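REQUEST ID: PR-0412
SUBMITTED BY: lab tech R.K.
PRIORITY: routine
TASK: structure prediction, single protein chain
INPUT:
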Amino acid sequence: MSSEIPDPTDIQARSVETVRIEDEMEQSYIDYAMSVIAGRALPDVRDGLKPVHRRILYAMNEMGITSNTSHRKCSSIVGETMGDYHPHGDQAIYDTLVRMAQDFSMRYPLIDSQGNFGSMDGDPAAAMRYTEARMASIAEELLEDIERDTVDFASNYDDRLQEPAVLPAAFPNLLVNGSSGIAVGMSTNIPPHNLGEIIDATVALIEDPDIAVEGLMEHVKGPDFPTGANIVGRDAIYSAYATGRGRIRVRAEYEVEEWKPDRDRIVITEVPYQANKARMVERIADDVNDGDLEGISDLRDESDRDGVRVVIDLKRGANTDVVENKLLENHLERTFGVINLSLVDGQPKVLTLKETLEEYLAHRREVVRRRSEYDLNEAEERAHILEGRLKALENVDEVVDLIRNSEDRDAAKEALSETFDFSAPQAEHIVRMQLGSLTSMESAEIEAEYEEVTAEIDRLETILGSEERLLEVITEELLEIKAEYGDDRRTSILEDDGTVTHEDLIPQEDVFVVMTEDDYVKRMPVDAFDAQGRGGKGIIGADVKDDDRVAAVFRANTHDYLLCFTNHGKVYRLKTYEIPEMSRTARGKSAVNILDLENGENITAVVDTDEFAPNERVTMVTRDGYVKRTAGTEFTNIQSNGKIAASLEEGDELVDVEVTDGTKDLVVATEGGMTIRFDEDEVRAMGRNARGVRGIKLEDDDAVAGLVATDGGDDRALLTVTRNGYGKRTLLSAYRTQSRYGKGLIDIKTNDRNGPVTAIKAVTEDDHLVMMSERGQIMRTRAGEISAVGRNTMGVTVMDVAEGDAVASVDVVPAGTPEGDAEPTDEETDDEASADSTDGDAADEATADDDATDDSGD
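STATUS: complete
OUTPUT:
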């Protein structure tokens, strides 16, 4: 007889299974993902706990560390939990225990702590060997009746012990304390709520299973965070409750106090949930130091054990609303993204508010049913024993004799069963009875207990036989918990006043915008420049580079839309506040960082407008004298790379722009001192890509300097300013209307003293003028201080321009505005009598071309 020895190679071959690596990777990853989802990261919808939370509480319960015992070292609790139920590292268990004890993390902490358990400033808890803990009384409500077969148990990790798959949970802990976690491919973020509100909603659902989300929201106003603060708007709350997802804006609680005359302070008393207070204060300080947050003089954290108090002192004259809005945008508001994802029957599912409560009620029904069945079984067993005892008392002498005459206990039990028809449990109990229990008093107590047990059996059978009665029990127990642990809301609900936008953070104020030929741009407050008498030198308004020159200065409101026209015939659109605010001596910021300008492209004209009326036209003039009108509606929806405003011939440039309404006359002025006035209807409306028609006939070396729109009843004057700082005012009525494309009339002499014309404006004598030189000097004066004279005159000194410098731009601050009504602070530096000529004989100096009306073709 022989036996074959198997070839080891064959055995090894048979133990190897060939699989596709992608299939193995897919299955292994799915197994890992489900392990993380179900065993680590997501809470169970029934008790609102993840496995680690559940195991900590169960381990403490098994250790007897309840709310009415002394505190125990956390290291002992962690060790017991790790050794028996959760072998995943002591630090992870301790971190979870710490969070369950923090009153700023949990709306209703489940752990009663003793020692340093961290702070909302991000301070960590002390090591577990230094801290102590015990269960909070509300945590015992989660474990209540766990010993009465209310939930299923499973083997622990090494099959030595049994642990609960879920806790009985006498209240909806998932919604009350919330939960957060990141699993594989999904995450949950459930906000905490007020216990009383959630219980009221649960009771409402019991009473009306068809209740809608709106009905539940009559009880649940919204999340109720442990740190208080405010929720802004109700729409996001409704979305979160109706769909299981939403984005809730949480705003710090603060108040504005006046602590000194003309000085306010902002006091923060509650911070948004999960915000790190110390980090928030640090970021505010960083923004103040970096200049991103202006108007703050002091910042300090005065928080103590009584609550949060962060004090922000404002500077004298600071705009409190602006500081407040900037704090809201960057520091005092945060978004809580609601993702109501939890495990339902072991599977992750996003639930609405109603679905969450329904799942909890289903769990609670099962718990109360199983508890009632357990109690009924216990009561029936007790009743059966009591029935035996009562029968034994009725036959006490016979029972005693029978037991006395029996050989042993077993014989006595058998005899009792045969003689009196006792069951085995009854006979066992009677044999073990003491003689003292056979007294008449004991008999009365047994009869009373039997009646109580019988009544309890009837009650439990009613509960198990009636769904309505079972729900009444659940309702009663929920209301008892509400009475025991319910408290007031901490988080207020504010009406949504709109999301804080960048525009909200900018105060509405008039500013001067300065642009240079190299496209540096900035804005400065109008009130930074006092009015002076005419002829002054002004003050530094911009620090331009040696090879750069100021191109334009104009006034606008920070919230105005600006249409910026360039020498290339393009137009760009931006808000004034998008231009950075800088000091007088700052150079400015390159415009290419704000507008997508091309190489060599400069802004030459700006129109300040929010929207155009249907009859309004954008009227443009070029350096070579072409004029065109285009409907204002064609200048909407301008992208960052701009739009074509006018097609230019080679060498031509766009010079000036006015907004007209079809009833105006156009006054075109040249650098050589000529002007022409004609009806704007002589220029037909045309599209953006058109070149335009000729507006004025230029001498060979002349070029257009500017454009003014006026009407027949205009009592304003035409202000003309030359490069060398001279200027004059002449009533617009002195410029008679001609046909376009004539040579025009002489406006001002442009000799060596005056230099060429640099700007023309329509002004009243109460308007203020802002003039800026190419080297950055800026001067402000009242228009009435400039001589009102006739055409063809020399003018007076308007601005004392240094040698090598020249007037670059002029803008008007209208009378009637606070900025336009300021009085001059300096004495006049030039006498009006210095005008070289007056309106009388000077008019005779006009050349033969003075009245020319050449109307040759376009």
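NOTES: The chain is about 30% helix and 25% strand.
REVIEWED BY: pending
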